[in-house]
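Narrative progress, year one. The postdoctoral researcher (J.K.) led the effort to move from monomer predictions toward full complexes, under supervision of the PI. The following entry was the first complex the group processed end to end, covering 750 residues in total.
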Amino acid sequence: MRIGGIAAYAPRFRITNRRISARLRMERMRVNRENRFKGLEQLDKKQEKVYKTSDRWIQRFIGFKERRFAADDEATIDLAARAANLLLEKTGIPAGDIDGVVFGTVTPSYLNSPPDSSLLQDRLGVSSSNGDQSPREFHCIDCSLACSTWVASLRHAYLLISTGAAKNIVVIGADKMSSTINWRDRAFATVLGDAGTATLCSVVPPEEDWFDRNNFWNWSRGSDGQVIVTPKGGSSQPVSSMDDITEYRNKLTMDGALVKERMVPLVGGPGIDAALQKAGWNMDMLDIAILHEANLVMNEDIINRWRKNGFKGQILTADGMFGNTTSATIPLAMALHGDQLQVGRRFLWFAFGGGLSAASVLGEIKHPIITTAEV
Amino acid sequence: MRIGGIAAYAPRFRITNRRISARLRMERMRVNRENRFKGLEQLDKKQEKVYKTSDRWIQRFIGFKERRFAADDEATIDLAARAANLLLEKTGIPAGDIDGVVFGTVTPSYLNSPPDSSLLQDRLGVSSSNGDQSPREFHCIDCSLACSTWVASLRHAYLLISTGAAKNIVVIGADKMSSTINWRDRAFATVLGDAGTATLCSVVPPEEDWFDRNNFWNWSRGSDGQVIVTPKGGSSQPVSSMDDITEYRNKLTMDGALVKERMVPLVGGPGIDAALQKAGWNMDMLDIAILHEANLVMNEDIINRWRKNGFKGQILTADGMFGNTTSATIPLAMALHGDQLQVGRRFLWFAFGGGLSAASVLGEIKHPIITTAEV
């Protein structure tokens, strides 16, 4: 499998750190006003803390400068369709040559049905019948694995293509994370952003394959599932009251300290060791690495550990300008830095987070790649 | 790949057709009472129609006798964990031999995070580390494709196993569909039920493979996405008001007539023709067929078309006793009729529905299979 092109789209609406802090402050005032109205006590210092942040705090502890928010009427499918159509346009591949869509997202446009992958088939203009009116085969699947979604989705495409089941697959990494923000908790409010990406995966002869099946590595620790969780809205606890909504119980929560405690040592040490060992690679073979951009300061910790163990490569990021776009972070960093993706360079893409989960892939760029970002 | 075992679990709580009609009647009265309170008109005859049903009507037009509903504190992960632990117990495979979980569901336990596949790793007691404390590789992915979810998930397992990436994968098909019912519309209220299934997929030498990559066939028609849809609760329209909840806008809706109009001719004719042709099979080679059990009367239409075209096999169903359990229907029918799964029999599993989507697979049973149902 080769990657022929990567397209990214981010909504125009820029949200600065200053604006995030103002929004949290407004929420704090609202809570105090409501408490007064209900005859309850005002928030105490400790309770107020989760509403307090600033541009300086966010830049220092997270490393993000700004992020983009989609419009109210712009869903995950719209972010993805914009990126996917851009991909087709720039790579010149006709929609009729696409054999399927692997749609990676943690914020599906619809609960239950319809799947975003089916919707995208329509948005790409791929017909459901052949010329003779027989049903046209088309592979759709929606995949999700929290922050590791994109690498897990890419692997599904790799399995389809490397077994000859498909020639061209569009892998989506798209999330409208703004729809998941709990404005009464700075943990995710300070980091999340929206973006859509589309990656063209195409068949090549085995000797030109960028990947190998041993280049994919996966890890999970389900006992830490509650570290990053949306308490309500799933089948475990459906949204059932107005309080669920006003108190953001159907929005994401995170124990940030525990995420760091668990993931930094893993990804910084035995995780990357296991991934490299499985593939038979060494740290010094890596020319480029991209980490899931959850928190640039935490990633810096991980990279420092790598450097101590011989990593000499270059790190690509979205420069802290888009926040944590979950399923979009890794392809977004590539779309923004296409000039760094030269033939001959070896790369590592490492995603990790909710689940807890981790998914990584190693590869070598063997063909020129078309990148484009409408941001 | 072979299938070593299939386990199914359904909650104890039996819901008869009579009870469904009573629940819909109660809802109709509630709406009229609310309308009176608000000074609005009572429901007219046409509006009342969607609340009216009976045991006779459901048996005649849908073919279901009863279904099971999970308890409030029983989520999709609980249905799946029960089935998966039963699977391990009956097949005798140690948890430590499982390389991964492909979790097929349209009702994930949590929105966004954590993924059910990670949670199941923990519920199975699979460790996240090896004996030497290095991180243990484990493959997790949550897959979704509306009513075609289970076949799409099975395919992911097939790709992992047939490429040597994994030896033993547990494929889950589990749904708590009762959490998606709109009690102001009989369309889905009369059909949906809850169940969890777990299927053990294991590596075998190529000559013993039950499947072939050409045995999988997929189709999609995203332009019909709105035929089966949950209007609110996804990233396109988050739940935002109490009315969204009381008026069930975050629950499933279906244009049943259009589903039939689109799917019966497709699955009954060119769909199965395309699936057979791709695999190089003929209709008369099929010993057993299982259709996604959305509606037994509609399925009868499809099967009649098949019989006219030479199908002479046996149909397995869940006998209308469990309703439409979405991702669980096909493995549930097998778990209930394990005595029919003799070595040498060739089968077709055909799923279709929301998206619109269809996914089918052909295979031959080449090893004894252990089935168990706790229902």
